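We now fix the convention by which a protein and its fold are recorded. These numbers are not coordinates but entries in a learned vocabulary of local backbone shapes. A record is reproduced here so that you can trace the correspondence yourselves:
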Amino acid sequence: MLSIWTCSLIECKNVAGSQRGSVAQLLTPLPRTTDYVGVALTRSVMLDTSRMPSYAFLSPQAVERREETTRKGAYSLLPHEETWRDRQPGLQQRGYLLRQRYHPDWKPSWEGTNVDPDFCEDSVTSLRLEVIDATRPDGAVVAIKSINNLGSHEVEIARFLTSLAHPENHCVPVVDVFPDPLEPGRTLMVMPWLRPFNDPEFVIVGDVIDFVTQMLEGLAFLHAHHVVHRDIAAQNVMMDGSQLYAGGFHPMRRGFSLDVIDELKPLSRADHPVRYYYIDFGLSERFAPGAPSLVVGDVGRDAEVPELSSTIPYDGYKADIHALGNLFHKELELKYHHVEFLRELVMHMKQRDPAARPPASELVTMFRQIRSRQPPTSYRWRLGSKSEPAYERVLNDTVAVAWEGLSQLKRLVR
């Protein structure tokens, strides 16, 4: 398997170990004195087979079949990947290194070996058309997004929100912006590489409470600064997962190590709190202070917001509130046991009449009161999936109680 990529930048003498990819690390800008022209910036492509399991090695017959599928293009770059390959030299000059797969001289690392390509990092494709992962010289993994300049305010709004330092700002920060070296009509925006908010899944009630708290605070912050998101949905809420995976994780195969050899087990959110973020401000609007918050457009991933219209103006703030309430309903209420305390909140957020929905700031206060009524011990209750059979739920709940008791005992001993 490919060994973990390394940054051998002359100016970079150490890679942040446990903080690789954390948002705090990324907010430190790259030095711009050299633009990294002529500086050695490489990822190791030596095939390290020492840690591979025995089933990673193919029989001679399987090797022949693999070679044939490789020749037929099974592992070739997809059209959008070719575009990122063509951007690679310009990105490297800027200090961002793409995975070896996207280098102009890439050749599959498994060629001439008996290794299954599934255990080779450079076999992993990127399925996102306008976003790709990259590594900075300090070892931080970032997302680079290509944005069409025509009619878009995404960069402007994202940079404005990044400029507002506040603990309740849950908008993904922008760490760099520069012209697309390949397409003059586009801009490349660099942000932290995040994970879906529910990967890994929530385990205990406290995980849900923390998530809802952060999302409500983030929405209230957004609205307090006269910005409506307009596309709140599960796909646009993510988290900084670096706290749960001390050694990092592969950006595409999130459940695996950077070299895609080892399957990872995440740490618990209860002991390693995470931070959640709103992303994708491509449909967002920013209003002048005191200006009406009316928007027009049947847009966004959540088509269930009742007032959406391409002709009749509606309140963007109220639409955001309904969309977030719908996310809580679908991703939490319908999926887990022990989240009945959300019903009051979601009911207010999903009122059909937009005027009946409380503003985000009031929802923050409402949920604070709801939290205060929760018994402290309930925060450690196992959620349990509603799709779980009854007998399995009883067994898993029993095991969870036993593990919790053991965990508490360890804390007392310490």
In short: The radius of gyration is 24 Å. The chain has three domains: 23-192, 195-380, 384-414. The chain has nine helices and eleven strands.
